[in-house]
Write a structure and sequence with these properties.
By secondary structure, the protein is an alpha+beta fold. It has four domains: 16-55, no CATH class; 59-108; 113-191, Roll (SH3 type barrels), CATH 2.30.30; 204-293, no CATH class. It has ten helices and eleven strands. Strands 6-5-4-3-7 form a five-stranded antiparallel beta sheet. The chain has a four-stranded antiparallel beta sheet with strand order 9-10-8-11. Strands 1-2 form a two-stranded antiparallel sheet. Strand 4 and strand 5 (154-161) form a beta hairpin. Helix 4 packs antiparallel against helix 5 (96-108). The longest helix is centred in the first third of the chain and has 17 residues, at 59-75. It is elongated, with a radius of gyration of 28 Å. The termini are far apart. The model has no long low-confidence stretch (mean pLDDT 84). It holds the Pfam family WCX. Residues 205-275 form the WCX domain. This is WYL domain-containing protein.
Length: 294
C-alpha cells in the first residue's frame, strides 16, 4: 500500500535552499545520492534521532557553559544559572558522570548562598555554616569573619572560624582558623551570637624572589606589603591567608620564582617538587643538589 503524501509550498529567502540541502547532507538525509529537504523537514517534525545533532553541544561549548554556570552560581544569579543548566542537560553531549554531576548541582541551586553571605558580611554579623567537604563529611563552622575571594576562575568563601578539631595537618599554625570553602558545598546558613572579627583572616608573610622575565612580568595580587627590584631580582613580600593557592601560583612561574621564607612553606614546596620528580621517575640523590635547593 502506497503511503499518501501531502505537498506544501514554501516561500524562503535566496540561499536558504542551499543551506537546507547542506544540513540534510551533513545529517545524511538523502534522496538517492542527493540531500533531501523534504526528508529533513519530516525528520525535524518527527524529532528523529539524527536531528539531535543539530542541537548537540560539543565538549568545548560544554566547558564554556560549565564555567559560566559556576560563576553565576557563586555570585548568586540562580535564575540565570538554571537557564544554562537546563541547556546543558537537554542539549549537552555529556558523559554519564558529568550528567550526574549537573543533575546533582540542579538540586543545590535552591539556595542563593552568595546573597545570604553578602548580607552577613555587610552587617558584620557572625553566622553558623553547615558544609559538606569533598570527602562528603558534614562540618559546622562558627564564622566570625568572611570574605569572598577569586581564585582560578571561581569565587570562594574564605572564613575565620572557631572550629579546628577536624584539622589533621597543622604545619601552618598561624592560619589554623582560616578555611576556604566552595559555595556549592554549603548546606545551610543561620544566625549565631557573638562578635565579628575586625582584623579579618589570619595571614602569613611570604618572601618571594622573581628572576628573569618575571621581574617585569609579575602582576601584583593586592596582598603585597613590599615590592622592590634590586638589580636583577624582584623582591616581593605578601600576606597570604591560604598557602594552597600561593603554591599553585608559584608552580606556574617555574624557575623564575623562589620562595625564600618562611622555611616551612619553602620546605613544603620542596617536598612537592620531590614528589613530582618521583612520579615521573626522576631520581634526586645528590645531597649537594638538595642542599642547594634548600
Amino acid at each position: 500500500m502506497v503511503r499518501k503524501k501531502e505537498t506544501i509550498t514554501l516561500s524562503i529567502p535566496p540561499g536558504t535552499k542551499e543551506k537546507l540541502e547542506a544540513i540534510a547532507a551533513r545529517l545524511e538525509i538523502l534522496w538517492g545520492s542527493k540531500p533531501s529537504i523534504s526528508g529533513l523537514l519530516v525528520a525535524i517534525a518527527e524529532q528523529a534521532p539524527e536531528t539531535q545533532k543539530l542541537f548537540t553541544l560539543n565538549s568545548s561549548q560544554v566547558q564554556a557553559l560549565r564555567q559560566a554556570l559556576n560563576l553565576l552560581d557563586d555570585e548568586g544569579y540562580i535564575g540565570e544559572a538554571r537557564t544554562i543548566l537546563d541547556l546543558l542537560l537537554k542539549h549537552g553531549n555529556l558523559t554519564p558522570p558529568l550528567r550526574q554531576s549537573f543533575e546533582q548541582l540542579d538540586k543545590q541551586l535552591s539556595q542563593a548562598w552568595r546573597i545570604q553571605v553578602d548580607r552577613y558580611i555587610d552587617r558584620q554579623q557572625p553566622f553558623r555554616l553547615w558544609y559538606e567537604n569533598a570527602q562528603n563529611s558534614r562540618l559546622i563552622f562558627t564564622v566570625r569573619y568572611a570574605q569572598v575571594s577569586f581564585h582560578e576562575k571561581r569565587s570562594y568563601l574564605e572564613i575565620w572560624c572557631n572550629e579546628t578539631e577536624d584539622l589533621i595537618n597543622t604545619e601552618f599554625p598561624e592560619l589554623i582558623h582560616n578555611r576556604c570553602l566552595r559555595f556549592n558545598r554549603i548546606q545551610s546558613i543561620d544566625d549565631t551570637p557573638g562578635d565579628w572579627r575586625p582584623e579579618g583572616l589570619q595571614t602569613l608573610e611570604v618572601y618571594l624572589h622573581f628572576y628573569g622575565g618575571m621581574v617585569r612580568a609579575y602582576q601584583p595580587k593586592g596582598d603585597e606589603i613590599q615590592d622592590l627590584t634590586i638589580g636583577e631580582v624582584r623582591q616581593v613580600v605578601r600576606q597570604i591567608s591560604n598557602p594552597f593557592w600561593l603554591l599553585r601560583e608559584v608552580r606556574r612561574y617555574g624557575e623564575d620564582c623562589e620562595i625564600i621564607a618562611p622555611q616551612n612553606l619553602r620546605d613544603r614546596y620542596i617536598q612537592e617538587l620531590q614528589a613530582q620528580c618521583q612520579q615521573y621517575g626522576i631520581s634526586i640523590t645528590d645531597k649537594e643538589a638538595l642542599d642547594n635547593i634548600r
